Amino acid sequence: MRQQLIRLHRWFGVATALFLFVAGLTGAIIAWDHELDAALNPSFFKARTAGPALFGLELARRVEAADPRLQVTYLPLAAEPGRTLQMMALPRTNPATKQPYTLDFNQIAVDPATGEIQGRREWGAASLARLNLIPFIYKLHYTLQLPFTGGVDIGVWLMGIVGIVWLFDSVIALWLSFPSLKAWRKSFAFRFGRGGYALTFDLHRSGGVWIWGLLVIVALTSVSMNLAAPVVRPIVSLFSTLTPDPINNPEILRAPQPGDQVLSRERIVQLAEAAGKARNLNAPPGGLYYAEFLHAYGVGFYATGNDHGDIGLGNPWMYWDAATGKPLGAQIPGKGTAGDIFMQVQYPLHSGRILGIGGRILISAVGIAVAVLSATGLLIWLKKLNARRRSAQNASRVRDGGRSVA
């Protein structure tokens, strides 16, 4: 049994090592994505003009009026003091060609005092330019920058499957790390004085044992981040009732009808303000998202600058039909069934934001540890592979020598 588990651990580890090495290092970086991005690109984050800021809806109106080719799809409703207001945008349809306009950007930084665009970039573009570096690393973390093909996000699925394999392999690794009750202390020890292979082995085995619980949490939440709808929600629903997800439920969303008009952003914000008061939410509407392909609006409730949800279970979100204003659903942190709360906790755990700054520091450290475990695992495998090859070569020479004597 143990030998079979060793083989499984070996091949699971080899198959996922490179993916986990990349995911670990990029995860350690993007725990601080907002801060690093702002430090690298001050012209994209710092407002040029001092003075009172316009409301986010007015800024979006000015941006769209200045460039009719684009449609703002996400915007914070207020800018942080001294900062630009960053919006996401998609191309509108060209009435002459019936095709989307060509845009070389999907994110813009707007001066909140004037409405002028300070910067543009394609968020997530495969580029190492300073302006694109942090979004590139962020997308690399969960998609490997692989393409969306045939209606399938290949990178998201691949990294989700890697997470599943990693989760199973973590259980196998813990079992293998304790070969006997008498030798359990060795599984926690590091032979720093020995160096070389002994230390490499200890970093891999003992390092994994010390942080095993954190590794399992990160592995599980990585699956939830990438494969929530097709894998995790169906499994969780076997144990607890789940409130229907308004974003991925065709029974809630309706197909756009001919002649449908889209409600104004102002009207949706009014609906959101009333709904927030009715639910006694502490934060006001803080950001607005329009998903044309879903024919729906989403509104996040948070204080200015807290769009990431810096501590706890994140921010509340509510959704409305874009044509009728009918409520489609809500995701309120800490509310709902046990299954709902389990799903709510996945991103805060994965990002470390559930514990605030301390949690993000911890997640960065775990990301580096994942990279070290992946690298040391490969080194151990290569050393043993070379040893097996040398043993086979020596055995072959002995056989050939025996034939020559004969």
From TrEMBL:
<keyword id="KW-1133">Transmembrane helix</keyword>
<keyword id="KW-0812">Transmembrane</keyword>
<feature type="transmembrane region" description="Helical">
    <location>
        <begin position="154"/>
        <end position="178"/>
    </location>
</feature>
<feature type="transmembrane region" description="Helical">
    <location>
        <begin position="209"/>
        <end position="229"/>
    </location>
</feature>
<feature type="transmembrane region" description="Helical">
    <location>
        <begin position="361"/>
        <end position="382"/>
    </location>
</feature>
<feature type="transmembrane region" description="Helical">
    <location>
        <begin position="12"/>
        <end position="32"/>
    </location>
</feature>
<keyword id="KW-0472">Membrane</keyword>
<protein>
    <submittedName>
        <fullName>Iron-regulated membrane protein</fullName>
    </submittedName>
</protein>
<dbReference type="InterPro" id="IPR005625">
    <property type="entry name" value="PepSY-ass_TM"/>
</dbReference>
<dbReference type="Pfam" id="PF03929">
    <property type="entry name" value="PepSY_TM"/>
</dbReference>
